[in-house]
Amino acid sequence: MKxxxxxxxxxxxxTRTNDKLAALQRYFSEAAxxxxxxxLHFLAGRKIxxxxxxxxxxxxxxxETKLPNxxxxxxxxxxxxxxxxxxxxxxxxxxxxxxxxxxxxxxxRILDLHKMPEEWRREVLVRTWRELNSNERFVFNKLIxxxxxxxxxxxxxxxxxxxxxxxxxxxxxxxxxxxxxxxIEDFKQLxxxxxxxxxxxxxxxxxxxxxxxxxxxxxxxxxxWLAEWKWDGIRAQLIRRQGQIILWSRxxxxxxxxxxxxxxxxxxxxxxxxxxxxxxxxxxxxxxxxAVLQHRIGRKDVSAAIREExxxxxxxxxxxxxxxxxxxxxxxxxxxxxxxSLFADFSRAIPFRLSEKIQVNSWADLAxxxxxxxxxxxxxIMLKRLTSPYQVGRPRGDWWKWKIDPYLIDAVLIYxxxxxxxxxxxxxxxxxxxxxxxxxxxxxKAYSGLSDDEIHQVDAFVRRNTLEKFGPVRTVKPELVFxxxxxxxxxxxxxxxxIALRFPRxxxxxxxxxxEEADTLETVRGLLKAVKP
Length: 533
Fold this sequence. Notes:
This protein is α+β, with helices and mostly antiparallel strands. The protein has three domains: 2-144, DNA ligase, ATP-dependent, N-terminal domain (DNA ligase i, domain 1, Orthogonal Bundle), CATH 1.10.3260.10; 210-403, D-amino Acid Aminotransferase, Chain A, domain 1 (2-Layer Sandwich), CATH 3.30.470; 407-530, CATH 2.40.50.140. It contains 19 helices and 20 strands. The chain is globular and about 75 Å long.
């Protein structure tokens, strides 16, 4: 645990990529495999279920520190991070240097906690707090609350592992994306020498497009590019390999049980085929809103009624394995030709679709179509260089997403709460409202889009203008107006306004507007009426 805590500190205390990479390489080179496996589990963004509620943690910390609950709550409000607050308040340990290995801490002290009676859980947690120093407690608390995050990109973790194993980052990214477990055996398999053999269900790292910020004419001749619609669905890879069929989402989750009709249809694919594409809600040869697709996300049991309510297709736009061969290095033009030949034999009854090529002769003609994207229920246009290989991650230059302008509304800041990580002591997570019959109704939460200087200004405003406190949440004087940008909206019974905004963020601070000039719920509903069903 000491070595993992040291790694956490090294990663948290620098913004230099090379320093973080060096720290990761040292750790994976030096740590025992059983500890490194769990470290990778957490650094890769995987979590373990929350094993104890925050209210119980606060109660037990109060008993251990002899501090009243209200004082711990006040400290939490000041610090903004529960794990750090408890680590700082708990008494110093007994001086014993037990150096509990990370894997022992996780496997023997954490994983089975939720199965224990409350008194046993308390005994285990308090004993562990007493055996760890303050920094170790902080990381331990992060793990048990499911809030472990540190400022390191997953791609950097993959690079470090690749350097330790002496394989390419692409090979390591491929392995880490697979269905491995935090065990000695699986970790050693991740570090094995490079080889051509692929596991049956192992996906490829996804190739991601970059936002197009310049005019498309800057890309050169339009004849060098493939243009496709940018669909609003779930990015996925459909794998038919060694007799198995696996549907992987970009979030590294096997989602075949949510979309059994796609798995069934994949039996028509020849073995050794991997398609890259988008899962879309689809009816009558046209896409449905993403909100319809959400009816199936998170469900393990997809009934016939749900399948009827939210029918889906797999819209393929790339072929990355063919006859068992990895063809990512082939130019897109050749991969696309193979993909078209594959789809030429498919019946329209099969829920597979080939992503449509947009045929135009000039960038001006394409711009006209791009302006119609919202009416077509798509997010914009994808531009892919015909000579491009299928790469890993988001390298710039060959794949671009030319998105339509977002929706914009002006809303009033009504609630604020602290952020996490380096922003744990600042109010950075905001709730915004719009007017409805003279009252401000919450319409969106957002935490991105402001500069550091603006965040500090809003934080100061929140502290000066707090009206009420609800735990870490502050109700603030409704004065600040922000322009919110978002990609889509849909009706929602889970939101007080009856509408959910997709990917809301702060576009700019409207210092020129007073709160009473912000938009109304009627205006937002008007945008909803304009959305194609």
